[in-house]
Amino acid sequence: MSKTGALDLASGLGGKIDKTQVLSAVEKYEQYHVFHGGEEEERKANYTDMVNKYYDLVTSFYEFGWGESFHFAARWNGESLRESIKRHEHFLALQLGLKPGHKVLDVGCGIGGPLREIARFSSTSVTGLNNNEYQIARGKELNRIAGVDKTCNFVKADFMNMPFPESSFDAVYAIEATCHAPDAYGCYKEIYRVLKPGQCFAAYEWCMTDSFDPSNQQHQKIKAEIEIGDGLPDIRSTRQCLEALKQAGFEVIWEKDLAVDSPVPWYLPLDKNHFSLSSFRLTAIGRFITKNMVKALEFVGIAPRGSQRVQDFLEKAAEGLVEGGRKEIFTPMYFFLARKPPSESQ
Ligand SMILES: C[S@@+](CC[C@H](N)C(=O)[O-])C[C@H]1O[C@@H](n2cnc3c(N)ncnc32)[C@H](O)[C@@H]1O
Question: Which CATH superfamily is domain 1-346 in?
Answer without folding.
Answer: Vaccinia Virus protein VP39 (3.40.50.150)
